[in-house]
Amino acid sequence: MNQSTVQDSPPAIRTAGLTRQFGGLHAVDDVHLTVPSGAIFGIVGPNGAGKTTFLNLVNGIIRRTRGDIELLGTRTSAFATHQVARLGVARTFQTIKLIPGLNVVESVVAGRYRVRRDTVLSAVLSLPGERRARRENESRARELLQLVGLDVPPDRPATSLSYGEQRRLEIARALATEPTLLLLDEPTAGMNARESTALGELMLALRDRGLTLVMVEHNMSLVRKYCTLSAVLNSGTLLTTGPPDSCLDDPRVQEAYFGRAEHA
Ligand SMILES: Nc1ncnc2c1ncn2[C@@H]1O[C@H](COP(=O)(O)OP(=O)(O)OP(=O)(O)O)[C@@H](O)[C@H]1O
């Protein structure tokens, strides 16, 4: 996707009055937020601010109590996860979710099958063309492993990788669905500084390929360096949104994190 196409695209995410209650708790409370296409968008906020709940609402894992969600120009408020995935939205999780028993390359190919039921069916029935499709899937998986910088033997069991490597494998698996919008929940958790920087560079490379990236992240220097826009949640509400430096230096944000502005 070139730059003018990205600019002409509808917002990757638009929420209006988005609210999710758990009993009496407003985990996400009346959030009006727009993530433009082509952004690297950081969602930050103290623990329990509602960041993961927001991502869960966006990709249909949980249902809203009130409000609306529009993804890539389609109203998805009542969509289930698989319907959201088919629009071109992929997701990684705070807790790594790799399928035990699969090797590195199989884990990425599994990502492809997740949204392509027709391919699964032809694989099971061994229909003509299935072997060629499998070869293509594996070769695409190897390209994605290279893209995310995961230089390990493709036949290694996925669960034997280091934590940082597993996080990159999850991103490769998410990319295997050919998403337009990639949601990452704390992608640098457990990564060292070198791995975190590599992840930042990967996000830039993906953005240059036309993806929109939204990440929940606690690493503020990463957000400042690599995100083009950000939003701060606090107690479920949207405190502020805009370029990371102005958001994170906002006294209200400092207060949400530290209690008093002068502690920043
Ligand atoms: N399924 C649930 N049932 C009840 N309460 C929930 C549920 N999921 C989240 N919450 C509550 O909603 C609030 C927001 O949680 P959420 O996980 O979205 O925060 P977060 O900003 O992602 O936090 P962290 O940075 O610690 O991961 C918290 O008070 C949490 O305990």
TrEMBL record:
<protein>
    <submittedName>
        <fullName>ABC transporter ATP-binding protein</fullName>
    </submittedName>
</protein>
<dbReference type="GO" id="GO:0005524">
    <property type="term" value="F:ATP binding"/>
</dbReference>
<keyword id="KW-0547">Nucleotide-binding</keyword>
<dbReference type="InterPro" id="IPR003593">
    <property type="entry name" value="AAA+_ATPase"/>
</dbReference>
<dbReference type="GO" id="GO:0005886">
    <property type="term" value="C:plasma membrane"/>
</dbReference>
<dbReference type="InterPro" id="IPR017871">
    <property type="entry name" value="ABC_transporter-like_CS"/>
</dbReference>
<dbReference type="Pfam" id="PF00005">
    <property type="entry name" value="ABC_tran"/>
</dbReference>
<dbReference type="InterPro" id="IPR027417">
    <property type="entry name" value="P-loop_NTPase"/>
</dbReference>
<keyword id="KW-0813">Transport</keyword>
<keyword id="KW-0067">ATP-binding</keyword>
<dbReference type="GO" id="GO:0016887">
    <property type="term" value="F:ATP hydrolysis activity"/>
</dbReference>
<dbReference type="InterPro" id="IPR051120">
    <property type="entry name" value="ABC_AA/LPS_Transport"/>
</dbReference>
<dbReference type="InterPro" id="IPR003439">
    <property type="entry name" value="ABC_transporter-like_ATP-bd"/>
</dbReference>
<feature type="domain" description="ABC transporter">
    <location>
        <begin position="13"/>
        <end position="260"/>
    </location>
</feature>
